[in-house]
Structure formats: structure tokens, C-alpha cells
Design a protein that fits this description.
Blueprint: E1 5-8, H1 12-23, E2 28-32, E3 55-58, H2 64-74, H3 79-85, E4 87-88, E5 93-96, H4 98-111, E6 115-119, E7 130-132, H5 140-150, E8 153-159, E9 163-165, E10 175-176, E11 188-193, H6 195-207, H7 230-234, E12 262-268, E13 275-278, H8 287-294, E14 305-307, E15 311-317, E16 328-329, E17 332-337, H9 347-365, H10 378-388, H11 414-435
Parallel strand pairs: 1-2, 1-7, 2-6, 7-17
Antiparallel strand pairs: 3-5, 4-5, 8-15, 9-13, 9-14, 10-11, 11-12, 12-13, 16-17
Amino acid sequence: MAQNVTVVGAGLAGCEAAWQLARRGVPVTLVEMKPQRYSPAHRSADLAELVCSNSLKAARLDSAAGLLKEEMRRMGSLLIPCALEARVPAGGALAVDREVFSGLVTQAIARAPRITLEHREQADLPEGPAIIATGPLTAPALSEKIQVLCGGTLRFFDAAAPIVTRESLDLSRCFFASRYGTEGEGDYVNCPFDKAGYEAFIQALTQAERAPVHSFDRQDPQVYEGCMPIEVLAGRGKDAARFGPMKPVGLVDPRTGHRPWAVVQLRTENRENTLYNLVGFQTNLKFSEQKRVFSMIPGLEHAEFTRYGVMHRNTFLRSPGLLGPDFSVLRRPELYFAGQITGVEGYMESAASGLLAGIQLARRLAGKEPLVLPETTMTGALARYVSGYTGKDFQPMGANFGILPALEETIRDKRKRYGALAARAMRDLTAAFRAAEEPIAEEGEAL
């Protein structure tokens, strides 16, 4: 009888880790504190809840995010098939109806014969083999135990974007389009600004009152660049947002025949296309200020907000020197960490770390050597970054081609270079799994 493993946290990483263990014959106790207790950012009782955006980023194989998802699919991911089934239009991105997605994952975990789901808060580090996948909002009691084990954490502040109803939008002031017209059939609602309107909006945004952070760590909060609140970005200069989430490149307003001065994009939240989120508009403004300022966006003058943006504390380990490339704790090899708490950034990055941690722990329990993926794969490169970063300022890292080793040959065309990097990753992933006698799916087309 295989030894039981405790997986703490049933978010993206925890569900993926439990799934990988169970499919290798290992019984799992999956501990999730919802619905008994919710973090400041969670609302749904379902597993694998998407808190910030409903986009899982680009789907093309010659993109870093698409490569990561294809690697996960081939390694037997639970979440990728669920995401594809819950997919909503988002141009070249894989975006999902978040409720459908979480529901599909919850059903799959409930049906898994070797996974026992327990709804309770885990206040201590489990005895025996375990994976901690409690995310960047780990409950205080367990967070204190982790801090003692690991000798400190990093803290950042993360933010989520507002969601509005489609019926409350004035679509006569907007247009449907994807950038450059190459990523879908106009999957985004675009709210165009002229120069005067944009400058008035930025002035109001930078002067708006922010919500207090009394429920978070007050000591010099460090904002993580990957989830920069829009008001913080706007404060860096009047054109900062116009070169960020409000960039108009690749868009032409069909009413004028010209590119807008700036644009706010809305992306659908659900299959019914009744809800839209403001892309890149994570914020910590007071709710009343969000209503006032965001109503200055063309087409949102009478917008109905079903969720205002919120800001919450994220906690990350100082993983280099604490974790191995298999996500195990160097000083306690049967204890693993997975997800954003390790320092990977992004939904699929978190899930990939859980997938890999589950495989690694199953191999350890079977007396096998760790499966250390080549750094030429996106999953392997992320694991190498988390465990082996040697700089002074360790910060979360998402999938990107910059963390992969360069190709032997020089390819100047970026798309062809990325395609070659992806092809190399597929070959090396297959070779590594076959050498380790682990199941690997056949190479598929881009998602």
C-alpha cells in the first residue's frame, strides 16, 4: 500500500499535484480551508479558483505561455483539458469562464478514486510526505510555521481588476477588435480615448483616493511589477499607461479610420459574454473612486460593476537555497512546495510547479531518482530559476523565452526563433520523460 501524501491547498497547483500523485497510484489527502475560511481574495467554494484574471495567456506554441501549456498537456495535466472545455473568446489567448473552469476541476477531483478532499484549515506543517500549495495568501497560522522552517519570506502586494456587465456598456462608443486583426474575430471590446480625454483620465486616476491597507503588512509594501495597480503605473508618468495596458498599437477605430490615442480593452469573463473585465486594470482605489474614475472611460459612463478591484498581500518563499529543482525542501526532502508561494508567477506557472512537484514526490516514494527537467524546457527553466537564482533581488518569474538557453544557431526572425525554441523544448521534454520511464503524450498542435 503506497504511503499517503497530504497536499495542502486546492488551488491550481494543489489540484495538479494531487492529480499527478493519484494517477501514479499514490493516495492523497487534499486539504482545502474553503468554504470554512476564505482568504481576502477568494469568493468561490470551488477548487482552482481564478482570482485575478480569467486569461491563461497566449495559446500559440511559439509563445512562452503557449509552450508551457503544451508541456503541461503532454505531461498529463488535469487543468489544461478543463481550460479548453471552459474556453471563451479571447483572440490568441486561452481565456476561460472561470466558474465553469473551477467547476470542471472540482468535479474531476471529486471523482478521482485516490483523492480524499478534506475541507479544513491546516495550521501546522503535515507529518510525513506532503506538498504545500497554499499560494501567496497562506493563512497566518501555517504561514508562521513556514517562516520558521524557511527562515523568512518575501512580501509583495498583488491586485485584481474590476468586472462590469455587458448590458451596462455603451457599445456605440466602443469597437470590437483584436490587436492587428490577427488574434480572433474581434474578441475584445475597445474603449478609445482621444488625447484630451486620456490626459484627464490619467489626472483623475493619479489623484483618486486609494483604499487603506490596514489588513495587510504596513511595512513599505513592495508592488510586484507583474500585477502593477493601474494608479501606480499612471503615477510613473502621463504616458506610462499608454505604453502599458492602454497601448493603442495594432488597433484602428472603424469609426475614424485611425488609431486611438489610448485604449482600454475589455475581455469577456464568461461563455454568455455578459461580464467583462478591464484588462490590465488591477487597482487598489476605493470602490467609490473606482466607480467615479473608471466611468470616465468611453463606453463605461454608466457601467455596472459586479466586482471592484481589490489589493491583497502575496507571500513568497526565498526559494533559492531552500528548494531543490524538484521543489523539495533541501532540509526536509519529503516536504515539497508548489505554486506561487515558490516564486513562479502566473496561473499556469503555478499549476506547472504543482504538476512537477506531484510527479517528483511520487517518484521519491517509489524509490526513483528525481526527474530534473532540462532547462531547455519552459517547466525546467522555471524550476531552475526558483531553486537556483543567484542574484541579490529574487522576484517572481513567469514563463518567458529569456530564461531558456540560447539556440546554437542564430535566428534573427523572432517568431521563427521562438518556434525553434519550442521545438527544442518538445524534443528534450520527450527524451527526459522517456529516459525516466514516465508517461508522455504525443506531440499535439498548438492549443
